[in-house]
Amino acid sequence: MSDGYSVMVVDDDESIREALEVVLSDEGYAVQLARDGAEALRLLKGSLPDVILLDMKMPGVDGWAFADAYRSLPDPRPPVIVLTAAPDAPRWAADISADDVLAKPFDLASLLDIVARHTTQK
Amino acid sequence: MIDREPVPAGQQQTDLFRLLVESVKDYAIFLLGPTGHVMSWNDGAQRIKGYTRDEIVGKHFSIFYPPRDVQHGKPDYGLKTAADEGRWQEEGWRVRKDGSRFWASVVITALVDSRGELIGFAKVTRDLSERKRAEEERAQILDLEHAARLEAERAVERLTVIQGVTEAALAHLDLDALLTELLDRIADTLAVDTVAVLLLEEDENVLVARAAKGIEEEVAQGIRIPVGEGFAGRIAANRHAVALEDVDHADVLNPILQQKGIKSLLGVPLIVEGRVLGVLHVGSLHQREFNAREIQLLQIVADRAALAIDHARLFEAARTARHDAVVAEATVRARDEFLSVAAHELKTPLTSLRLTAQTLLRRIEQGSVPDMISLERSLRLVDRQTDRLSLLVTHLLETVRLQAGTLQLERKDTDLVELVRNVAEQIQTHTDHHEINVRAPRSIRAAIDPLRFEQIVSNLLDNAIKFSPEGGPIDIEIEQSTQGNVRLSVRDRGIGVPPEHRAHIFERFYQAHTQDHRSGMGLGLYITTEIIEKHGGSIRAEFPPDAGTRFIVEIPAFSQESGTEGAA
Q1: How confident is the prediction along chain B (568 residues), in pLDDT tens digits per residue?
Q2: Interface of B with A in 463-492 (CB under 8 A)
Q3: pTM as predicted
Q4: How far apart are CA B80 and CA B302, in angstroms?
Q5: CA distance B269 to B277
Q6: Phi, psi at A114, each rounded to 5°
Q7: Helices B524-534 and B450-466 meet at what angle, rounded to 10?
């Protein structure tokens, strides 16, 4: 299924983190959770995931600030998929040159599809 | 009687001389006998006076004088003076044969013989009518010039006043500032002790004192004069000036005018494009008759003032309209932002609900039975998210109802301590890193809407939890404070509110932490405040220097009215 790929979820909402963790680990992904950009950047120093699911509006280091810091990391950098409830989700994704975008509330199939696409493309 | 004088020298010289005299045309030169009878005549005399030699010789010279002068004995006086002093001279009116008058210069010289005996008079008369007319014309021109100068001075004075009024009008678009300056200028110009402006309130048809100088009490007491009654009322009704020389004996309605000792009043209507705006009146502490010029001047001033007042009012209306438009625009913008925030807030729990539900479905479709532990975890998540959605929807509905004014309180005698403890316990179950402490007496009874009061407590606790993400104690205190009030305070040790946001936290849709994207719609405190105010209470926030926020609610334990309180 997922061949041991790993996914990092960056979202300040606990229910989103929890739901994604259940869904993705069910599919066989290794899941790392971060509640904001700062925590995500800390985790990235340890091990790189194969794909990052990034919420934009978060307290402290938000999606934009995370993207700024992330871009200065050395290659290869895993693809970033923006998850947002904002009405102009595609623009926000373009703002930070994200690799893909999923507008909340997304369904399970689109999520699994997009994650699979970005992990197998590597 | 002497017809021809004896000729002392040669006959020829005498004849020449007679010829000279007789042919002089510009002067009447003739002889009078000692009693004033005409003895000789020349061409000039005939031309000037109209009589021929034959008609006049032998007649008394008083015939040349107007009857009035004859009555006063002027001709005899002239002769007597000439006889006594040798000569009499004057300018005066004389009468021609045809009865017309002319202005004459007259010299009468006494003629005496070698023995000193008076033998008659030489009379020389010159017609000065032309000169007289010229002089009169000059005097008339001078008079006209004087009048013109006076008129010009008045025009300048009027222009100065108008200019002053116009300047005041241009300088002030604010009605009160405009009126203050106008009154000062009018008081100066007309040298009066009091000035007042009453403006018409059209819907009630009364004049209301709006500005006054010297009689400020008029405005302070909000003097109202019905149109058609009293001094000012008549001016407004009849649309023309009224001057009262003696206020004590006139139908003046406003008692302040008499109390102030005003003796005379002059008032004019303020009219713009046929609309009466009000009345302008001036008063004097000593009795004074306002003349036509002053009345006219005040009316001119009033016309300008009326225009300026009208403009200032239009400007005010425009400014209010602009302000309303700005407020409306801000409201629309706030609502749009709110909708966008609301959509965002609703989508988050929807996302986790959907994922959870679809995951369970997928497992079932794939034939794998979820284990009890993960099933319980999923269902708890579903439960929490539906709670969250339900709270969001409740807040939205409450806001709509508060805005529409349809939220009603249902007051019941309630034990507030029990209520607060229950809410605290329930909310404590939602968090494991906050410790909610309640400090309260055994019981406090109050007539409040228990459901709404629960909302107040739970909104404040939710806020305290939300804004202290690192956890820590949350202290609730409830006590009976002074004057039958109940005081509730909720204190957290969280991130507090930055000073620049503190003034706005009770506003609808306001979020002190939007920059942080901390979740919420900005409705909690707004709804809380509205419910507290409906209970007749108040809420304020304190920001203790060590950390966090303390909200303090004070509400009367028992409202003035009993039972259900209607909306607004």
Answers
A1: 555 555 555 777 888 888 888 888 889 999 999 999 999 999 999 999 999 999 999 999 999 999 999 999 999 999 999 999 999 999 999 999 999 999 999 999 999 988 988 999 999 999 888 888 898 899 999 998 898 888 888 777 777 777 777 777 767 778 888 888 888 888 887 789 999 999 999 888 999 988 898 888 777 788 888 998 888 999 999 999 999 888 888 777 777 887 888 899 999 999 998 899 999 999 999 888 888 888 888 888 888 888 888 888 888 888 888 888 888 888 888 777 777 777 888 888 899 999 999 988 888 888 887 788 888 888 888 988 888 888 788 878 877 777 777 778 888 899 999 999 999 998 898 888 899 999 999 999 999 999 889 989 988 998 888 888 788 899 999 998 877 889 999 998 887 777 777 767 776 656 554 444 444 566 778 888 888 988 889 998 888 888 888 999 999 988 654 444 443 3
A2: 469
A3: 0.49
A4: 68
A5: 8
A6: -70, -35
A7: 150
DSSP B561: S
Amino acid at B229: E
3-state helix, strand, coil in chain A (%, to 5): 45, 20, 40
What interface predicted TM-score (ipTM) does this complex get? 0.89
**A62 contacts in B (CB within 8 Å)?**
516-517
Structure tokens at B558: 């028992």
Chain B nearest CA to A65, separation (Å) = 12
At which residue do the structure tokens 């040669």 appear? B10
Inform me whether the C-beta atom of residue B349 falls under 8 Å from chain A C-beta atoms: yes
Residue of A nearest to B386 (CA): A15
Q: How far is B278 from chain A (nearest CA, A)?
A: 57
Q: What is the DSSP string of B291-328?
A: PHHHHHHHHHHHHHHHHHHHHHHHHHHHHHHHHHHHHH
